[in-house]
Amino acid sequence: MSELSAHNLHLWRGDTHVLRGVSFALQGGQCLQVTGANGTGKTTLLRALSGLAQLEEGQVRWDGAPIARDLGSYHGALAYLGHDNGLKGDLSAHENLRFGVGLRRSVSASAIDAALAQLGVAAQRDLPLRQLSAGQRRRVALARLVLLAAPLWILDEPTANLDSAGHTLIESLLHSHLDAQGMAVVATHQPLERLGERLRGLQLS
Amino acid sequence: MNAPATPLPAAALLLMRRDLRLALRRPGDSLLPLGFFLVITTLFPLALDPDLSQLRDVAPAALWVGALLSSLLALDLLFRDDGQDGALEQLALCGQPFAVLLLAKAAVHWLLTGLPLVCVAPLAAVALGAPYAAMGGILSAVLLGTLALSLIGAVGAGLTLSLRRNGSLLALLILPLAVPVLIFGARATALAIAGEPAAAPLYLLAALAVLAATLAPWALAAAVRIGLE
Question: Could you tell me the domains of chain A?
């Protein structure tokens, strides 16, 4: 069973000591909810966990091995959704997913259509992403998350720009992801009680 | 551990197709450097005396300063959009070797901004009074030179990724590194126009292009990773 663990993470941003000794361990089928006021380093923590930001001290381990040792295979197991969706405004939703997912695994057109339908943006399939609303774009990015089928999700404010139906959708996505023994690190203030005892909390200050 | 199921060559090709498609949706962006090059090289004959021998003397300088500045102008396109919308982040996290993916991006960038220069270089050379016999040498020089310039420039674009107003710093970073390309390119062009063998500077240009292609991907990956932080 895979495991993600953080050991005494420290990170400075300029003169600010953003991460001060963050530690946790997360097993398959568990979700870690990161909370904290604005500016307490939620995004920094998630970027450090994904290997995008360099830590001053401490280690992130995946399956017991430091992620820096084999970043490629760690990233192969990781699906990251940041503040920016990472989608191209000039491509349609379908093209975005075909290229975005295709870089990692082969994906059929029907699978893409199914994911778009699951996220409620099937009607926007062929529109340039530029013409979609911010919430719809977020839904397309979440469709990529579903298609990547990665065991580890790192989500930074996944509910940004989403309506209340979108919030429920995220909860059910997380539910089925954890049911499949996946794990997730989510920075959000949306209550995730439905996940029950599989939910861990991490409060940053 | 589930390794990426898409083989690396397929992933690189897919990325190239994506970038080409994006460029086709916005043709103006990649045509601008080409127009700039044509304007520079055709302004020289207009500004100078219509004296062929004088024109031929400045032809190498005009061609290569034009090529250098227009490749600098084009660099802005390489990572700007992908950096802003988070696509570069997704590329860095897709589990494929980042250096290879960035090399694929740089290759597309050359196809869009370097290759058109190669195609219009004979036209510009004729406007500058170069004889037809010199075309082979000029074409090879511009081909090798733009390849090297694209790769060197890509590293600079990666290094200045996180800066908001990166244009002037980019120029300062890149121009010293691009000087050898300018020197050997202009020399090869001058020899070709004079009807002498231009093999020596062409070999040196080829060596520069190969060196850039060997080292640039790793420097590029490191630079962009720092820029993403």
Answer: 1-77+152-205 (3.40.50.300), 87-149 (no CATH)
